[in-house]
Amino acid sequence: MEKTAVFKGKFLPYLLLVPQLVITLVFFYWPASQAVWQSFLREDAFGLNSEFIGLENYQALLAQPEYYKSMVTTLVFSSLVAALSLSIALLFATQADKNLKAAPTFKVMMIWPYAVAPAVAGVLWLFIFHPSLGTMARPLRLMGFNWNPMLNGNHAMALVVMAAVWKQIAYNFLFFLAGLQAIPRSVLEAGAIDGAGPYRRFWTITFPLLSPTTFFLLVVNVVYVFFDTFGIIDAVTGGGPAGATTTMVYKVYADGRLGGDLGGSAAQSVILMVIVIALTAIQFRYVERKVQY
Amino acid sequence: MANVSLRNVRKTYPGGFEAIKGIDFEIGDGQFCVLVGPSGCGKSTLLRMVAGLETVTSGEVDIGGRVVNEIEPADRDIAMVFQNYALYPHMSVYNNMAYGLRNRGMPKPEIDTRVREAAQTLELAGMLDRKPRQLSGGQRQRVAMGRAIVRQPKVFLFDEPLSNLDAKLRVAMRVEIRKLQRRLKTTSIYVTHDQLEAMTLADILVVMNGGQVEQIGSPLDIYRKPATTFVASFIGAPPMNLIRLSGDEIRAQFAGDSRSAAETGILGVRPEDLAISSEATADGGITLNLTVEAIERVGAETFVYGTRARAEKAVSATPGELPEGEVIVRIPGQDAPAIGASIRATAPRDKLHLFSADGRNRIDI
Ligand SMILES: Nc1ncnc2c1ncn2[C@@H]1O[C@H](COP(=O)(O)OP(=O)(O)O)[C@@H](O)[C@H]1O
Ligand SMILES: [Mg+2]
């Protein structure tokens, strides 16, 4: 009796927390702290010796013009992908919501891209838009458009944005559709009687009522663009041409894996981590305050 | 200011269900019309057709002399109060009321005047900055009313606006709505399944059943002369006692004249028209010999549930259906016979109702 009482009161709660804590420690804090530690070391190319060099890796990084370029690239890439995937998904969701009979079919069709691995999605889009092999390349060229993502940085960016957006739309669509369906019909009917046309109804009623969903998706999408689009970039452009599609996360990989600069790469991941945490915190603090009801 | 006319209005939902099977009636300018009927009889459907939220399959909806079948809800000059209030959750009380005026491009000062006036009337003046979720059920209901009255429309439409309130508040708001409508003199259509609400609010009462009109008239006319057994048992609480005459010994007492309807029809008598008495029944009245089964004391009145010694078939008429042979007697005060006692309940001839055997027609006696 006494034993169980003690166990119940003290150990059981902690015991039940253990799996969760272990998972967090092993899969997040441990690699994260490794990265932080690594970023203070210089390792030789063969990984045999390492020496502690303090902030030198960071100094070297911040002296590199390419690093700032990758920041700008990331900014352009992530704004484009987040804005496009959210707005296109919202457009689809409003259409599906209007036609509830077709919505289930639409949903199933929409979810397919999400089940495709990022690298595979990249390859698919590359096939379609490859300058010499792609099915779309010829029509584009016939229209007098000199399409070549292998040489033109803007074309390359457009291609990875398309692939990344295509993959993310499904996810956003499902959440938007659920959000739309949660808005009581009668509220929109009241709006119609109150003299608001469909367009005005959308912006003054639907969109504000959808803002919790939009906010959630914004956070998810930003994290997605920062990390998960790596596979797409790797498969489609490999960061090129001339670094035009080298985002921050891709540069971590390129410098560490391909360039062998583990310390510099670790410093970049630490900075990236800090940026994402800061962005998420800002979103929660400021955007959520504007989220209606 | 407007009349509302429905001319042979029908509604078939996609899927083939015919919810409204041809309805005709006219509501005069400034009148308060109540649509009453059991749940699922098509009241909301009919109201939503007037609002323009449902298409009209056939027939004509006419507001103020203009057929509005093809006209958008916004352009029909109506305002509607929904059962769940349908307030805009992200807008303040003020903006909820101002929204419809802004959409119509009314100048700001006038919007402000109207909203504040409505808030004054509805005792919402101190709550204009609150969001709907910060209000009680009764206050939300008043905001929904406010949103309708600031527009000063030709017609108010109400879809069970009080059914989400507790009983006390419901009575209070019922009185408020009636006073407000009398003052504004705006033509109104009010949907409810509550016969008491219907009786107390209506200038014209429309009793509906299964997508059709059972009876139209003033509430008291309908109470005094229900056209069918359905209306007889729906209007009035507790419902009218209905007794099938064929093969019943009561026929002998009642059918002084030997008309055939009286042989096979249905006899109705309201619980409040029966009295417990040992005196002889006046000529042409009826006497029911009952065994008391149950007593309900409500305070001012008492309901006595009795069964007749010789069980005749009671009429199955939903709603207000009684078990076979059961009769309700309403007596004033709290003095009631003991359970198990035998009593005589009597009613004079002028309080009796006679219907055809199928319950569809009233027969004057
Ligand atoms: N959108 C719809 N599609 C198909 N049937 C409907 C629809 N709306 C209501 N109905 C049916 O029409 C009938 C009348 O509904 P309604 O007008 O809401 O009744 P009430 O308001 O009197 O309770 C019901 O049987 C209901 O099931
Ligand atoms: Mg209804």
TrEMBL record, chain A:
Signal peptide: none
Cellular localization per UniProt: Cell inner membrane; Cell membrane
Domain ABC transmembrane type-1: 71-283
Membrane topology label: Multi-pass membrane protein
Keyword Acyltransferase in record: no
Transmembrane regions: 12-32, 71-93, 114-136, 156-180, 201-227, 266-287
UniProt GO cellular component terms: plasma membrane
UniProtKB keywords: Cell inner membrane, Cell membrane, Membrane, Transmembrane, Transmembrane helix, Transport
Keyword Membrane (UniProt): yes
PROSITE patterns: ABC_TM1
Pfam families named in the record: BPD_transp_1
SUPFAM superfamilies for the chain: MetI-like
InterPro entries, alphabetized: MetI-like, MetI-like_sf, UgpAE/MalFG_permease
Gene Ontology biological-process annotations: transmembrane transport
Family of the protein in this entry: Belongs to the binding-protein-dependent transport system permease family.
Record note on quaternary structure: The complex is composed of two ATP-binding proteins (UgpC), two transmembrane proteins (UgpA and UgpE) and a solute-binding protein (UgpB).
Role summary: Part of the ABC transporter complex UgpBAEC involved in sn-glycerol-3-phosphate (G3P) import. Probably responsible for the translocation of the substrate across the membrane.
Protein name, as recorded: sn-glycerol-3-phosphate transport system permease protein UgpA
Automatic annotation (TrEMBL), chain B:
Membrane-protein topology: Peripheral membrane protein
Molecular function GO labels: ABC-type transporter activity; ATP binding; ATP hydrolysis activity
Any Pfam family the entry gives: ABC_tran
Keyword tags: ATP-binding, Cell inner membrane, Cell membrane, Membrane, Nucleotide-binding, Sugar transport, Translocase, Transport
BP term (GO), one: glycerol-3-phosphate transmembrane transport
Top-level taxon in the UniProt lineage: Bacteria
Major location category of this protein: membrane
Record keyword Transcription regulation present: no
GO cellular component: ATP-binding cassette (ABC) transporter complex, substrate-binding subunit-containing
Record localization: Cell inner membrane
CDD domains reported in the protein's UniProt record: ABC_MalK_N
InterPro entries noted in UniProt: AAA+_ATPase (IPR003593), ABC_transporter-like_ATP-bd (IPR003439), ABC_transporter-like_CS (IPR017871), ABC_transpr_MalK-like (IPR015855), ABC_transpr_MalK/UgpC-like (IPR047641), Mo/tungstate-bd_C_term_dom (IPR008995), NA-bd_OB-fold (IPR012340), P-loop_NTPase (IPR027417)
Residue ranges of domain ABC transporter in the record: 4-235
UniProt family annotation: Belongs to the ABC transporter superfamily.
Function, as annotated: Involved in beta-(1-->2)glucan export. Transmembrane domains (TMD) form a pore in the inner membrane and the ATP-binding domain (NBD) is responsible for energy generation.
Protein name: Glycerol-3-phosphate ABC transporter ATP-binding protein
Species the sequence originates in: Tardiphaga robiniae
Classification of source organism: Bacteria, Pseudomonadati, Pseudomonadota, Alphaproteobacteria, Hyphomicrobiales
